[in-house]
Amino acid sequence: MNKQEFGFLRLPLKRAGFFVLLVLLFTLLAACGASHDTERSESQQKSMVQEHESEIGLEERESVKIQITVGDVALIATPENNSSAEAFLALLQEQPITVQMSDYAEMEKVGPLGTDLPRNDTQISVGAGDVILYQGNQITIYYGTNSWNFTKLAVIEGVTKESLLEALGTGDVEVTFSLVQ
Questions:
Q1: Alpha carbons 99 and 176: distance in angstroms, whole number
Q2: From CA 126, how far away is CA 83, in angstroms rounded?
Q3: CB–CB of 127/108 below 8 Å?
Q4: DSSP letters for 79-115
Q5: Cα–chain-centroid distance for residue 60?
Q6: Distance between CA atoms of 139 and 175, rounded to whole angstroms?
Q7: pLDDT per residue over 107-149, tens digit each?
Q8: pTM score above 0.90
Q9: For residue range 45-100, what is the model confidence (pLDDT) as tens digits?
């Protein structure tokens, strides 16, 4: 047999070979794409789980309240979302903390916390009801306004300057911080 006898087969065999190669290439690309889609969907699932866990953590954190007791007056505060507030809440889970607080500059009551907490100081303006960590080891309840580098720990709900002054009084005062039961 010579090459001329099979000349009619050459063209279709080349086309068939090209077609087989093309099918293999598409199969390979489809498999890679499916693998990539699987990786992406696994990544998306992990992300969704983390978001859900964050939402649960946020909901739990939002439901945690701090009680601030001054004499027979109980105030309720909502903690901030920062590492300082989380460390403060961890202390309160162990036991209530009582602080001797004094007036300062006719705008706040301040007293030693008895321990150092992590600082998240930023330049902020504070007002009546803000509970502030000062220098990492002092706690402050503002009834006036101020602007400084502070870390906000919590905000007392529904208070005014007047209602806080009535509760805190003038001069030194003993204040107990605890978790709402």
A1: 6
A2: 19
A3: no
A4: EPSSHHHHHHHHHHHH--EEEEEEEETTTEEEEE-SS
A5: 12
A6: 10
A7: 999 999 999 999 999 999 999 999 999 999 999 999 999 999 9
A8: no
A9: 444 444 544 444 455 556 899 999 999 999 999 999 999 999 999 999 999 999 99
